[in-house]
Amino acid sequence: MSHVWRPLFVALAVVATILCMRLVLVPDDFGIHEQGYMYGWHRKGNETDWKNIKVKYRTTAYCINCHKDKYLDIKDSPHAAIMCENCHGPALGHPQDPRTLEINRSRQLCVRCHFKLPYPNSARGGIKGINPATHHPEAECVLCHYPHNPLRAAVRKEAKR
Amino acid sequence: MISRRNFCKKAMLFIGGVAVPVAGLEIFNPQRLLAEKQDPAKVRWVFLVDTRKCVGCGFCVRACKLENEIPYDANVSRTWVERYVVTRDGKVHTDSPKAARDGFTTKAIDQAGKGMLEIRDEDITKAFFVPKLCNQCENPPCVQVCPVGATYQTPDGVVLVDRTWCIGCGYCVMGCPYGVRFFHPVYKAAEKCNFCYHRISKGMKSACVEACPFGARTIGNIKDPEDPVTRIIMTERVAVLKEEYGTKPQVFYLGMSKEVK
Ligand code: SF4
Ligand code: SF4
Predict the structure, then answer these.
(1) Are the CB atoms for A43 and B162 separated by under 8 Å?
(2) Residues A37, A72: one domain?
(3) What residues does the Cytochrome c-552/4 domain cover (chain A) (predicted)?
(4) I need a surface site. Which of A57, A109, B12, B94 has the fewest CB within 10 A?
(5) What is the domain extent for residue A138?
(6) Would the CB atoms of A123 and B54 count as touching at under 8 Å?
(7) Where does the pLDDT of residue A161 fall: very low under 50, low under 70, confident under 90, or very high at 90 and above?
(8) Span A113-118, mean pLDDT?
(9) Is the pLDDT at A77 greater than 80, yes or no?
(10) B176 lines ligand 1 (CB under 6 A)
(11) CA distance A25 to chain B (A)
């Protein structure tokens, strides 16, 4: 009779090996947790892994601490809604290492909004815009316009330098 | 006297016999099943996009790429902005060059391999921009198809990807009906928007929301009736993408147009 049972023993051995391997390989915190069987299977520790990622954009509320003057400049201008880091890059590492922050004077930055697109029923059509081919194509916008308050005359500090 | 053969047989029987019920306990635990039925979460993150406000400046895409370390010049992005231009002849032209990382700075439509398409101003009947991102579906197919439990839903409704657990099979990339998933070129794992989980869990807003000067993007908690985003979703006519798939997307759109797919 024993030759009949032999395949069963082999099968059981395989199952046992797999279960033992599972015990070793699958981390303790792998399970369904609060979310349940349907969409919950995961390693609980991974939630913390994601939460621990460093925040890079600190938002204007952080910049105000040291640059109140610039904040006051922009606060009442048509650019008030633009956060500092849109033009200066994420503040992570600043002020410890000031060079990590950029001062983007490029024309490319301004034409994101200010190249006129002929879309009358979109908000874009309503923004004051230029035709970059005819409106001083060689110049950086900041030579004539003060980005922190475009209504004010440009400081032209850069041009004089 | 026990023979070696007999000993092996009995040992295997014993291990097998013990392991099977232990595994069974792990897989069917009635207490966990009960936990699943209750809904203890006080937070359920949702997103609201106002397509009427978006101007296609692309600041959101840029901020997302930098905040979440998506290689800046690689042609992948967690979020992108689509431009729709409908012409007089009824055709719909769409594009999203470089995911709109640098904004829309030309009138011409980028037709990928087929060059740029110039459209005359007088031929345009309507044009608008539509930001897209992961919908953090209530019934996420990407989670269902993941064979190893690397993609999962958190109790506050965000779908996350475990980079160390992802085996790179690509099922989720195929399974997502919205095409929001891709492979991260550095981590070599499935990647997608996670509502900036590291920010929202610290009480901040996602990077794209902070970066949008026009208020086209907002994030909120649908379980909080006082939340301004919740109020809008509850009181105004909002739409979701591909409702017919039954994925219950949690990114809501205001001012959605019928051309948007
Ligand atoms: S949008 Fe796609 S990736 Fe996001 S949760 Fe839904 S199915 Fe998953
Ligand atoms: S930042 Fe706002 S307005 Fe600009 S493209 Fe993104 S969603 Fe649209």
Answers:
(1) yes
(2) no
(3) 53-89
(4) B94
(5) 60-160
(6) yes
(7) very low
(8) 94
(9) yes
(10) yes
(11) 12
Q: Rounded to an integer, what distance in angstroms lies between the CA atom of residue A68 and that of residue A62? A: 10
For ligand 1, atom 6, name the residue with the nearest CA: B137
What count of residues does chain B have?
261
Q: Kindly state whether residues A103 and A143 are assigned to the same domain.
A: yes
**A33 and A74 both lie in a single domain:** no
Q: How many domains does chain A have?
A: 2
pLDDT number for residue A102: 84
- Does A97 share its domain with A145? yes
> Taking residues B219-238, what's their average pLDDT?
96
Buried b (16+ CB within 10 A) or exposed e, A95-128: eeeeeebeeeeebebbbbbbbbbbbeebbbbebe
- In angstroms, what is the span from residue B71 Cα to ligand 2's centroid? 20
Which residues make beta-bridge pairs with B129?
B83
List, as ranges, residues 37-76 from A with C-beta within 8 Å of B: 37-43, 46-47, 49-57, 59
Beta strands in B24-173 (DSSP E): 45-50, 80-87, 92-95, 109-110, 116-117, 124-132, 151-153, 159-161
Whether this model's pTM surpasses 0.90: no
Regarding whether A42 and A104 lie in a shared domain, the answer is no
Q: Which H helix or E strand runs over A30?
A: strand A30-31
Q: Are residues A116 and A142 in the same domain?
A: yes
Contact A118, A50 (CB under 8 A): no
CA distance B78 to chain A (A): 15
Q: What is the pLDDT of residues B30-41, one digit of tens each?
A: 555 555 556 667
**Amino acid in the structure at residue B196:** C
ipTM of predicted assembly, 2 dp: 0.88
Same domain, A74 and A45: no
Give the Cα separation of B99 and B131 in Å (integer).
10
Domain co-membership, A103 together with A151: yes
